[in-house]
Amino acid sequence: MSPTCKAWGVGILIYMTQRGALFFQLPNVMAQQFGTNSWVMIPVFYILSLLHIIVMYYGMRRHGFQSIPQLISERLPAYAAVPLLSFIGIQFIGIVYTVIHSYTLVFQYTNDTSVNIHTLSIIILGTALYCAWLGPYTMAKSSIVFCFDILVHWP
């Protein structure tokens, strides 16, 4: 079992997750859904995302900062927990690969065109799965490192 997370570590983890969604996906989705006046809806969805961060934080604090697989395995019987955990794992792999693939495409278009998209996506997917397997403590620590890295290298 991994050590418990501090509240600020979980806060940074949730912030970094939402930051990726807000900065990279939200403007694109708004432009596709609302057309030319999408800039009006971006602050509304930004506030909704901030409310989502607050709800996630208080939900995790209520359950002692346990991960979702830990909660499912503790509170559900094994015949219901195993298929649910398998479904969540497959869904996680699909979503992570899709997001990493789009980030790798952006990296390829902006920095280096010789990067193999699938190879880099699989390497980053393996890193994400390894961090997820180790639990929320490791994810929080790695998100803190990435947060400081972004703050140092922000142009």
Give an overview in words:
The chain is an all-alpha fold and 155 residues long. 82% of the residues lie in helices and 0% in strands. Helix 1 runs antiparallel to helix 2 and helix 4 runs antiparallel to helix 5. The longest helix is centred in the middle third of the chain and has 33 residues. The chain starts with 6 loop residues before the first helix and ends with a helix.
- One letter per element, helices H and strands E, the order comes to HHHHHH
Tell me the Rg in angstroms.
Answer: 17 Å
Number of helices: 6
What portion of the residues fall into strands of 2 or more residues?
A: under 5%
Q: Shape from CA axes?
A: globular
**How many strands?**
0
Give the mean pLDDT: 75
End-to-end span in angstroms?
Answer: 39 Å
Helix content, binned percent: over 70%
Low confidence ranges: none
The largest pleated sheet is described as:
none
Name the structural class: mainly alpha
Brief digest:
By secondary structure, the protein is mostly helical. It has helices at residues 7-34, 41-62, 68-75, 78-110, 117-134, 136-153. The chain starts with 6 loop residues before the first helix and ends with a helix.
Which short descriptors sum up this protein?
155 residues, mainly alpha, 6 helices
